[in-house]
Amino acid sequence: MQNPVTTALASNFAELPATASHGPLRIEYRWVNEAAGNAPIAVFLHEGLGSIAMWRDWPLALCERLGMRGLVYSRPGYGLSTPRAHHVKWPVDFMTAQARDILPALFDALDINMQERKRMWIIGHSDGGSITLLYAALHPDELAGAVAIAPHVFVEDISVESIAQTKQLYETTDLRSKLSRYHADVDSAFYGWNDIWLNPSFREWRIVGELAAIKQPLLAVQGNDDNYGTMAQIDTIGERVPHAQLVKLDACGHSPHRDAPDALNEAIAAFISRQG
Question: Where does the record place the AB hydrolase-1 domain (predicted)?
Answer without folding.
Answer: 43-267
